[in-house]
Amino acid sequence: MHRRFGLKLWATALVTMAVLAQEPPTASPFSVAGSPSCASEISTCPCVMTQAGNFEVTGPLRPTVPDADCLTIDAAGVNLNLAGNSIAMPFASASDAIHLTRKAVGATVEGGGATISGPYSDGVVVESNGATLSGFKVSSATVGIILNRARDAKLFEFQADGNSEGGVLIEGGGHNRLSNFSANSNLTAFKGGSYGYGVFIRGSKENSLSAFTADSNVYGVFIQGVLKSRIFPSGLVVCCFPGPPSARNEIAGGEATNNADSGVILSENSHSNEVTRVL
Q1: How far is CA 165 from CA 69, 118, 121, 140, in A?
Q2: Which of 261, 230, 262, 257 is nearest to 243 (CA)?
């Protein structure tokens, strides 16, 4: 379960810049308290994987209580097989379908064609280093996939389409590899406009995107460094001062077409990023 990062963004430049000025939290916003341990064969959720080993989902999952993540990996050396089963998040709460905590070093998640959905939840949240995830689809979530200060993750053969805020958010961390994926049709309309992104890289370095589509969003691929705001004793908030940049990211061999605003944006406090062979 987590609180939002202040990334409920709108499509005007002024409001977008003010919201993006918020620095990522220094402590983890995620919690695993209150959920039972998972059995090796998982038939219900919420539950937490607290030791290394192999786990397999045996049927469709739907959390039985609100405000809880469905599946949490909280240990190194966990291999989770969704075996093509669905995860539906029915409650109006800020929870996640799958959550890899910082302890989940080297964890693997194999979807086998699994589908993940939930209108008020995020799909997959990765905080750990060295995770490998593949073979699933996230739709109708808030954000499909979040890499929160994760490093050296490998994600491939996945879909993050049709979510309300974004397909993939890479927040901090770096050196993650995403390939053979789609992040299409992620957007929400509001009075006067719409907002939504395929991939958003924020304050993160040396990531690579390849063999992807980021079509029919408002922004296809958005790369921006962190911008800080300063609060004066009078209460005046002044934006924006540079924080950690987004740098040396490689975007290659993809497609970013039919986006309402832009296909690829290299925005404030980003540098040395390389974009090649993107239609």
Answers
A1: 19, 13, 11, 10
A2: 230
3-state secondary structure (DSSP) of residue 18: helix
Paired with 264 in beta bridges are 221
Which positions ≥6 away from 261 have C-beta within 8 Å? 11, 218, 219
Contact 125, 141 (CB under 8 A): no
Q: Round to whole Å and give the CA distance between 160 and 261.
A: 19
Tell me the helix, strand and coil percentages in the chain, rounded to 5.
Answer: 5, 45, 50
The pLDDT tens digits for 231-259 are: 777 767 666 667 789 999 999 999 999 99
In the structure encoding, which two tokens stand for residue 39, read together?
């059995």
What are 175-184's pLDDT values in tens digits? 999 999 999 9
Q: Which residue matches tokens 């990531």?
A: 207
